[in-house]
Amino acid sequence: MSKPLVQVSDLRVVVRGADGPVTILHGVDFSLEAGKVLCVLGESGSGKSMTMRALMRLVPRSATISGRVLIDGVDVLALRERELARIRGSLVAMIFQEPATALDPTFTIGHQIAETVRAHEGASWADARRRALDLLELVQVPSAARRLQAYPHELSGGLRQRAMIALALSCRPKVLIADEPTTALDATVQIQVLLLLRELQRELGMATLFVTHDVGVACEIADEVAVMYAGRIVERGSTEEVLGRAGHPYARGLLRSVVTSDLVGTRLVPIDGSPPELSALPPGCSFAPRCNHAIERCSAAVPELAALSASHRVRCARLGELEPAIPHAQEVST
Ligand SMILES: Nc1ncnc2c1ncn2[C@@H]1O[C@H](COP(=O)(O)OP(=O)(O)OP(=O)(O)O)[C@@H](O)[C@H]1O
Description:
Layout: E1 6-17, E2 20-32, E3 37-41, H1 48-55, E4 63-71, E5 74-75, H2 81-87, E6 92-96, H3 109-121, H4 125-138, H5 144-147, H6 157-169, E7 175-179, H7 187-204, E8 207-211, H8 215-221, E9 224-229, E10 232-238, H9 239-244, H10 249-254, E11 306-307, E12 313-314
Parallel strand pairs: 3-8, 3-9, 6-7, 7-8
Antiparallel strand pairs: 1-2, 1-4, 4-5, 9-10, 10-12, 11-12
Helix pairs in contact: 3-4, 4-6, 6-7
The structure holds adenosine-5'-triphosphate.
C-alpha cells in the first residue's frame, strides 16, 4: 500500500460563539492515497464543509483549529500564512458548488486561467495562454479556443463548472477538494461533470475529497466513503463496505434509498428527528436520542471508531449486536 497523500488526525475546530465556545469538529481522522476519491456524506450541519475548509485553514476568524493535517508531507496547520497561500491552489485546489465564487466576472475565462498559470509557474503569457487552451480542452469544453475569450456570464452553468475545474487544475494540484461541485447543475449535466471529474482525477492521479448529500454521486465516483454526524466521522470504509454493508444505524438510515449504482440525484433519506445543537450535544453517542437501537450504554461514552474489517470502521457502542447488513446490501454495485 502506498503512503497516503492526505493524513488527517484528531482534527478539531472550535468556534467562539455568543454563549461561549462551540466545538464543530470533534477529532476527525482519515487518510487518502493518490488517485483515490473519498466522498464525505452527511446531513446538513454535520461538519462536512468545515472539515474541508479546516484542511486548508479556510475557517472563520472566530474558529480555532487543532490536530494534524499532513498533505504530501506538508504540516498544514504549522505553516506560516505565506507558505499556506502558496500551497492553496498549487498542492491543493478547491472547487465549490457555485462557480461564481471562484470565477471573476470581469475577466475572460482564458485570462483567468492563464493568469493563474503565470502566477504559479512563472510561465510567459504565450505559454500560459497555450496551457489555458489545453486545460479547457482537457475538461472537454467544446470550441475551447473561442471559449477562452468568453466571460463567465456568457457560459452555461455546466460550462462554467468545467471552466472552474480547469482553473482548479491549472496548477497541477496533487489534491482536489470538491464541495458539492455539481449540486446546482441539472441531472444530465451533473453526470457529465462527475464522469469528467472521475476521468481527470484518475488521469492526473489526484487524491480527491468530495463532499456531497447525494448517495448516487458517491456510488458513481467514490473509492471510499466517510459518513459524518454532529462533527464526527461515524463510519468510513470502501464504497462497497459503507454503501453496501453500513454498520452505523445513522448511516443505515441515510442509505435506505440505495438500491442500484446509478442514482445521481438520489438525496439522502431524512431520518426522523433533527440533528442535535452542537452547543448542547447529548452525552455519549450524539446519535443516541434519534436511534431506535440506543440503550443506556450508548449515552455513557462516545464510542471509538471500531474496525469491522481492515478498511471499514464504525463508531457504534452496539457494533456486532445489530443485524449485520442492511436489506439492500446485495443490490449495491460500485
Ligand atoms: N462561521 C461559522 N460560525 C459558527 N458556526 C459555524 C460557522 N460555519 C459553520 N458553522 C456551524 O458548523 C456546523 C457544521 O457546518 P458545515 O457547513 O460544515 O456543515 P455541512 O455538513 O457542510 O452542511 P451542509 O451540507 O449544509 O453544507 C454547523 O452547525 C454550522 O452551523
